[in-house]
Amino acid sequence: MMLPHFWIALLVVFSWNVGVLNASAGDADPRYRVCVKGCEETGCVGERCFPHCKFSSNGVSVDGPWYMQEPLYLRWRQWDCQSDCRYHCMIDREKEREALGYGPVKYHGKWPFKRVYGIQEPVSVVFSALNLAMHFHGWLSFFILLYYKLPLKENKKAYYEFASLWHIYGLLSMNSWFWSAVFHSRDVDLTEKLDYSSAVALLGYSLILAILRSFNVRDEASRVMVTAPLLAFVTTHMLFLNFYKLDYGIILICVSIS
User: Fold this and answer.
1) Within this chain, do residues 207 and 242 fall inside the same structural domain, yes or no?
2) Judgement on whether residues 152 and 223 belong to the same structural domain of the protein
3) Does 43 map to a domain?
4) What is the share, in percent, of the chain residues with pLDDT greater than 90?
């Protein structure tokens, strides 16, 4: 027997609140904070030193912008002094915790993943890329079936009246998984907003498509009447996330219930 949506939402909210409490565990660790502060002042974590962390007395890098000194494959990912300091301090602190028998904790809201060739969360990137590939394969198969295997109308359009709606769904799905892969590759403000905005757009359109398909809405005027208020709500919510507050709780509840 499935739980009612109310209890699912309540469970999600409780889990999210527990996650928020745990999210600051690593940040509040005194040894981690001392390490980050020392790295930003000296440019070194232990024996590892970063050229772009060398600052003069007025806070300006003595050797020029950090992005001119990084390897090419790292430049576009914006690994700056603070990011490198936090990452290496996190890795060293987790090694110390593991030696003492403690489990991993979150740092700045994220689990301590190890970078691979500058990719922040390689496993998540791989799964997002696989989802993107499968959605592309599904959309391409649907396209070939409609326009090359089934008969068409005289104006070269498909007989299936919901074809265009499913094409849009396929494109939104591929867009969502693409930005998911980019976001997990490098978490910066821009990639975060693009990822969550794409996910919200896909969820909103999925609701619209589900209503149109379930009630077999074929008339264009009726479709507009159903779509317009929902589209306005989704657009407003995306603007809220991008320009006011990126509320992870609301996003998590919407994804879980959907």
Assistant:
1) yes
2) yes
3) yes
4) 42
Q: In terms of Cα–Cα distance, which of 176, 177, 73 is closest to 115? A: 73
3-state secondary structure of 224: helix
In angstroms, the CA 174 to CA 197 distance is: 13
Pinpoint the alpha helices (H) of the chain.
5-23, 30-42, 72-75, 81-99, 122-144, 163-185, 189-214, 220-243, 248-257
Query: In this structure, what is the dihedral angle of CA atoms 87, 76, 200, 244, given to the nearest 10 degrees?
Result: 80
| Domain span including residue 179 | 122-256
Q: What tens digit of pLDDT does each residue of 124-164 get?
A: 999 999 999 999 999 999 999 999 999 988 888 888 889 99
Residue with tokens 């300091």: 85
pLDDT tens profile 160-207: 889 999 999 999 999 999 999 999 988 878 888 999 999 999 999 999
Q: Is residue 240 part of a domain?
A: yes
User: For 182, phi and psi rounded to 5 degrees?
Assistant: -65, -45
Poorest-confidence range of 168-172, 226-230, 246-250?
A: 246-250
Q: Measuring CA to CA, which residue among 18, 80, 88 is closest to residue 52?
A: 80
